[in-house]
Design goal:
The chain is α/β, with parallel strands linked by helices. It has 23 helices and eight strands. 49% of the residues lie in helices and 7% in strands. The radius of gyration is 20 Å and the shape is globular. The structure holds iron/sulfur cluster (2 copies). One iron/sulfur cluster binds at residues 30-36, 53-54, 57, 87, 91, 93, 95.
């Protein structure tokens, strides 16, 4: 088997989470044409310039030129952005909005009240890098669910939370499988605790495609959430750790759209660190989202999958340009793809957005759930854990009986223990 280098992602996929303010050159790329406005979910809901990409970039520029200080108003404008990057994909001037909003949020972090800052640092910079902590949290959730203590939680929270199987958690993901070039799986944080069946299906599918599928013991969170929420130092430290853990493999396989988009940008994240820049660039070239790998269903075919609604995660569609690959995988699984109305619009999950901005998160969630229900498909393919939880909640809220599954689970239903996210 010949390994081909990772396809170029283009400037729109690049992030500079290591910087602490949007770069002047980046700010200068916006010509204020407004062509991105119809693609921006927050502008479409609110209809206001300060909820648009153009308005947000103008505010960033005002700060950069010293005409205003970073204050609460600026902070709200940046926080209300989903960082979905639909504007970036639509912009004819090539505005690198993703790295600009990352940097602007790092600016905002400085003025956040101490309690909010402390909570964010505890979660994003202390807990996420520690795999023992994230696993302990998953165990805690599993125990609470087993004891039915989750009944005490609000219904919406229960609907969005995946079932955590304690048996799953204590069952190793398995020894090396298959033979060929080494493909190492990123276990991640949320994926490891709450979506282990997706990991099992991924390993089976990758081994079946002619790779030696391995799960290195040293492994963990990719750092995407830290990068998205103003913690560049923590994000860089997690990137270095994952490079150390996984760089010996021929490929690094990732089954969460947000994580693969972020890891493909490790080269950018560490570009100004002479000891790591080249190593990070080489690592990013090995990263593959499982959806873009040419995988086949497990023989014998389990029969046609039938109609399946297709959800494009923003970090697939806008950040990596992955779209046809997802449909190819679902078709290979025997699925008849059903497209969503307004398919490129964010579902409102956007990392921690639904939790931090519940009103907008809820509006976008319901829009997405209705679009899925309209297709009439009994299952929706979702390749990102945040989207899966958000969409599951939305479907529950509108009373739609639609199963949420990762596309690789549909391709290899026997790979996952439960077969469903
Ligand atoms: S971000 Fe791009 S599309 Fe939007 S206003 Fe600026 S130049 Fe125009
Ligand atoms: S990232 Fe998404 S929400 Fe933010 S300005 Fe761009 S299109 Fe709008």
């Amino acid at each position: 088997m010949t390994l081909t280098p990772s396809p170029p992602m283009g400037d729109r996929a690049r992030w500079f989470a290591g910087v602490t303010a949007p770069a002047d050159d980046d700010l200068a790329t916006c010509v204020a044409c407004g062509l991105c406005l119809p693609h921006c979910p927050t502008f479409r809901v609110m209809g206001r310039e300060d909820h648009s990409p153009r308005g947000r970039i103008a505010a960033m520029r005002t700060i950069a030129e010293g005409r205003a200080e970073v204050d609460e108003t600026f902070g709200r404008m940046m926080d209300e952005c989903l960082a979905c990057r639909a504007c970036e994909a639509a912009c004819p001037s090539g505005v690198p909005y993703g790295r600009m909003i990352e940097a602007a949020r790092a600016q905002v972090e400085v003025i956040r009240p101490a309690p909010a800052k402390g909570v964010r640092r505890a979660g994003l910079a202390w807990a996420l890098p520690r795999r023992r902590v994230t696993r302990a949290m998953a165990f805690g959730l599993g125990v609470a669910q087993a004891l039915r203590l989750d009944r005490l939680a609000p219904e919406r929270m229960r609907a969005s939370t995946p079932r955590v199987s304690l048996r799953e958690l204590v069952t190793p993901l398995g020894a090396d499988r298959g033979s060929g070039p080494v493909a190492a799986l990123l276990v991640g944080c949320v994926m490891e605790g709450a979506f282990r069946p997706v990991h099992r299906a991924t390993l089976e599918a990758v081994a079946g495609a002619g790779y030696r599928a391995v799960v290195p013991r040293d492994n963990g969170c990719c750092g995407a959430l830290a990068a998205h929420y103003g913690q560049p130092d923590a994000a860089r430290s997690m990137a270095r750790a994952r490079i150390r853990d996984l760089e010996r493999a021929d490929l690094v396989v990732v089954n969460s759209a947000g994580c693969s988009a972020h890891m493909k940008a490790y080269g950018e994240l560490l570009h100004d660190d002479p000891a790591w820049a080249a190593r990070a660039e080489a690592f990013s070239a090995k990263v593959r989202d499982v959806v873009e790998m040419d995988l086949r269903p497990a023989p014998p075919p389990s029969g046609p999958l039938g109609p399946v609604a297709v959800h494009d995660a923003c970090h697939h569609l806008h950040a990596q340009g992955i779209g046809p690959e997802l449909r190819r995988m679902l078709t290979a699984a025997g699925g008849e793809c059903r497209e969503l109305r307004d398919a490129g619009r964010c579902c409102g999950a956007a990392g921690l957005y639904a939790m931090l901005e519940p009103e907008m998160g809820s509006e976008l969630r319901l829009q997405k759930a209705r679009a899925i229900a309209e297709t009439g498909a009994p299952v929706v393919a979702v390749a990102n854990p945040g989207c899966a939880m958000q969409i599951r909640t939305g479907l529950h809220e509108i009373g739609a009986d639609v199963r949420v599954a990762h596309p690789v689970e549909l391709l290899h239903p026997s790979g996952g223990a439960t077969g469903s996210t």
